[in-house]
Amino acid sequence: EKFKIKAKEKYRRCIALDLSHLFDRPSEPEPLPPLHLPEGFTLLANRLESKNKVVKGAVEYLYGRGLTKEDFWLWKFGVTEHKAPKGEQDYRFRVIVPSFDVKGNLNYYSARTWWSKFKGNKYANPHIPRESVIFNELMIDWSQELTLVEGVFDLVKCNENATCLLGSTLDPSYLLFQRIIENSTPILLALDNDARPKTFNLAKLLLEYGISVRKLEIPKELNDVGQMTKQQFMAAREGAKLITTAEILRHKLESL
């Protein structure tokens, strides 16, 4: 119809090709079983003046990281005094930060020790594949630039539209990566200073998918976003520059 081709005219034919099978969306992953916060979880925002040693220690630790009362409500920090049975992860003496999916359901949590004399791993998490988790997806606007940091305590210093990798790895197998591509979401990379090679590798991968990428410069005297003040972060975000293929090539040459 567009080119006014007559179907019966000799030597002219209209051919319809069904190519939809080439663009089938991958099947949605099976839903994970319901997740529950560690037993005895209590919200710190309700107990900021408590004399309880566990609560007081956690509150002082968070204030010491430059967080505010508003942050206690926003991030829903919590603690537990419940002693886990032998063989299970013990979450005592840790600040627990819950994460919620797009429907508001708990989908993950990260816990970090606040006690300087704590013996054991600094961080504790549920046994859920990180590839299947988008930390606090409930708070993400995919139509706006999304800040990516490594850990939860980097995330609490960021702008509102941000999430963490729960590490320093991101590739097409991750649900977070797939959502970024689906929505063509521009990215601001704010990985730790010691992850510079990973920053450029991730930027290269995102650029291959047509995603705009900026890089935030963390002051050299600091290790990560978590050590910055919110004011420092916002100033650095304002000055972040686009990463181009030329810059990635320059980085590769410098690293030889």
Beta-strand residue percentage: 5-15%
Intertermini distance: 58 Å
Helix content: 25-40%
Number of strands: 10
Question: How large is the radius of gyration?
Answer: 23 Å
Helical run tally: 7
Shape: globular
Mean pLDDT: 90
The major pleated sheet works out as: 5 strands, mixed
Class from helix and strand fractions = alpha/beta
- Low-pLDDT runs of 5+ residues are none
Order of helices and strands: EHHEEEEEHEHEHEHEH
- Main sheet strand line-up: 7-6-8-9-10
Provide an overview of this structure:
The strands form three sheets. Strands 7-6-8-9-10 form a five-stranded mixed β-sheet. The protein has a three-stranded antiparallel β-sheet with strand order 3-4-5, with no helix packed on it. A two-stranded antiparallel sheet has the order 1-2. It has 256 residues and is α/β, with parallel strands linked by helices. The N and C termini lie far apart (58 Å). Helices cover 25% and strands 14% of the residues. The radius of gyration is 23 Å and the shape is globular.
